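Incident log, structure service

09:12 report received: a user says their structure output differs between two submissions of the same chain.
09:20 pulled the input from the user's history:
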Amino acid sequence: MKLEIEKKVRVAGPGALEPLLAARGRFAGTLRKEDRYYLIGRRDGEPIDLLRDPIVRVRTGEGEGARISAKRRAFIGSTEVNEEVEIAASPAGAVAWLFESYLGVSPFVVKRKETRLWIAGELHAELSLVEGLGWFLEVELLRDPPDAGPARDAAAAEGARLVDDFIASLGLSPGDGEARPYVQLLMEGT
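09:34 re-ran on a clean worker, output below:
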């Protein structure tokens, strides 16, 4: 399990940010990702609680397989601080069959995005065009989490500060971070 610390900021487009990202990190490529979100163990018609419900994401587009992930979400301001587990599975079609045909679970949201990735030390910065939502800058840090309690809280706070500092170095305000998950934005149509 990893401690994932990430923030996203809505931006007008990639133009002004790409040279700034290139000056701070190494361009690692362009990816097309499709994320299918499944609610596990819930009855149809119940309201969805994105912070508490067991949601599994299946991501394809990063090679021939899929990545299955689940998160325990928490926030420091508009910065997500999640415990995340991620499992590689292959082939991608078999993963979709497992969820949709075998388990009978349909995705409640499908997110597609085209991402340009830069790596700056332990930070990953993505300029992403999310279908139906527009452009976002996402800055992410993954760490092995310390044990629960004060050490974990301190690591989360330090990671959130590193993410905010990087965003500020690009001339953006960390206070403009979008705290709502993409799933919520897509469900709201905003």
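09:41 both user submissions now match this output. Likely a transient worker issue. Closing.
09:42 reviewer note: The mean pLDDT is 90. The two ends are 31 Å apart (CA to CA).
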